[in-house]
Amino acid sequence: MSERIGPPLRGDERETLRAFLDFHRATLALKCEGLNDEQLRRQASPPSTLSLLGLVRHMTEVERTWFRRVMGKENVGLVYSEETDYQAAYDASGATWGEAVAAWEAEVEASRRIEREAESLDVTAYNARWEEEVSLRLVMHHMIHEYARHNGHADLLREAVDGVTGV
């Protein structure tokens, strides 16, 4: 994942959305930095079974779904479930950082490509789950929201694993 760079203070809408999304992607990567697989799999906030590695796997599915499946109209399944079970990604019990980060980075790159190739933020695609057309603008905002929400979880998980805060 790339280094974390703040969004432009005077960028246009698309540049600003792109930068905020990349900022949050980099934040999740930083939350996982320096931990081994066992620490990344640790379910550190009982009774929740959530782990840092589970969050990375979940965000892999979110990237794939919103960008490749919805906006890109690609006929691809989920990464971690053949039954389209979005919760399956959270089970990181047998996962490793190497496989999880490779899958996540591949989906992020596909997402970036689809966003770059879109004519504008007004481009729409059908979201079968919502049974509605959605714009790239909505998808970008939704992704920022999704990462920000889960980065809050990652803050708590990381602190519980090794006491690190403030990343």
TrEMBL record:
Natural source organism: Kutzneria kofuensis
Descriptive protein name: Putative damage-inducible protein DinB
Domain of life from the UniProt record: Bacteria
UniProt xrefs under Pfam families: MST (PF04978)
Lineage summary: Bacteria, Bacillati, Actinomycetota, Actinomycetes, Pseudonocardiales
